[in-house]
Amino acid sequence: MTMLGLSLLCCAIWGWLLCARGGFWRCLQRDDRDLPLAPGGPVWPRVVAVMPARDEAQVVAASVGSLLRQDYAGRLEVIVVDDHSSDGTGALARRAAEEANASERLTVLNAPGLPEGWTGKLWAVHQGVAHAQSGVDPPDYLLLTDADIHYAENTLTELVRRSLDERLVLTSLLARLHCQSFAERALIPAFVFFFQMLYPFAWVNRPDRRIAAAAGGCMLVERRALQAAGGIEAIRGELIDDCALARLLKRRGPIWLGLSARVTSIRANAAFSEIRRMVARSAYAQLCFSPWLLAATVLSMAVTYLAPPLLVVLGSGAARGLGALSWALMALSFQPTLRFYAVTPAWGLALPAIAATYTAFTLDSAYQQLRGRGGAWKGRVHRPAAARAAAGPTR
């Protein structure tokens, strides 16, 4: 392909992304406005939050405390499933409940041993959901959450209100990720940008679109819909469990996904290596562990993100001008996400280098899977079904 042809292709790609990909880059699907209260007010349903936690001593107390301090007018209980922690996670969760004067609303369970065919997180979630449903008065909704998530006091009220008003079976908020260190400012907004590109939230939120996604840190699930869909067991081996749950539940009814500043992650990823591990854990799983999809992804990332600045440097005439235009469109599309994270707009010009970094992380994810270290997280690794059958039990 000639440089001119490549530059025309780059412009076409960015024109399509900006105009025909659900407006993903505009960051319009957000929860930052309180919904109007219906006349008479709703009958607030019972909610049980289920939080799997494995060695989360640094964050679990703040997360549990923020849940127990919700201003929610209905019944709210919290179940923490201590997944074989060695750092006192369960005790710290109990202490947080005592400090919030809400010990009676917290249950700490110890997860049983991990059986074959389950990922560790989903096995813990399954135990929490089963406990929540075991009583004579099971909850109407389950809030599936992570141990590093902090909630503003009105979060649950607004989540439930949206779920009731729009008759949603799944309402999910993408938590505002920790973004303080240089590595986080360089890479975290792009992580959110790429996620929105892959799953345009406006399309996720349309019942007539098959695309489905959720953010695992905060998912309010209608319990009956989950039970009718087969429960957590239906996705027991999934590494990207939130999107798998969204696909499962969208067959049962409408779902909604949005950005949020009410819900924040308090887990810091201060170094580039920590972000690499976070991305590499699931990137190859996103590609269905396919070397062909990996090759196609690398090629598409090169054409979409790396070619425009290379055309500016190496091209001439119209090719250089079109390369500059593509680069400018790229930087422009990144601005709403950068504003959401209060990061300088200049990072928009660095998106090609950031994309190259994420491409390297994806290649590393495939390499780690090849080494038998795929999905490594706190002493556990993930292997797809075919690899488990060949290699023996999951660790």
Key attributes of the depicted protein:
395 residues; alpha/beta; Spore Coat Polysaccharide Biosynthesis Protein SpsA, Chain A; 2 domains; eight-stranded mixed β-sheet; 15 helices
Structure description:
By secondary structure, the chain is of the alpha/beta class. It has two domains: 3-24 and 278-382, no CATH class; 26-33 and 43-274, Spore Coat Polysaccharide Biosynthesis Protein SpsA, Chain A, CATH 3.90.550. It is built from 15 helices and eight strands. The protein has helices at 3-20, 60-68, 89-99, 120-133, 155-166, 182-198, 201-204, 223-228, 241-250, 272-280, 283-286, 291-314, 317-340, 351-370, 385-391; strands at residues 47-53, 76-82, 106-110, 141-145, 149-151, 170-176, 218-222, 255-265. It has an eight-stranded mixed beta sheet with strand order 3-2-1-4-7-6-8-5, with helices on both faces. α12 packs antiparallel against α14. The longest helix has 24 residues, at 291-314. The N and C termini lie far apart (47 Å). The relative contact order is 0.15. Mean pLDDT is 92; it is low at 386-395.
Summarize the structure.
By secondary structure, the protein is of the alpha/beta class. The protein has helices at 3-20, 60-68, 89-99, 120-133, 155-166, 182-198, 201-204, 223-228, 241-250, 272-280, 283-286, 291-314, 317-340, 351-370, 385-391; strands at residues 47-53, 76-82, 106-110, 141-145, 149-151, 170-176, 218-222, 255-265. The chain is globular, with a radius of gyration of 22 Å.
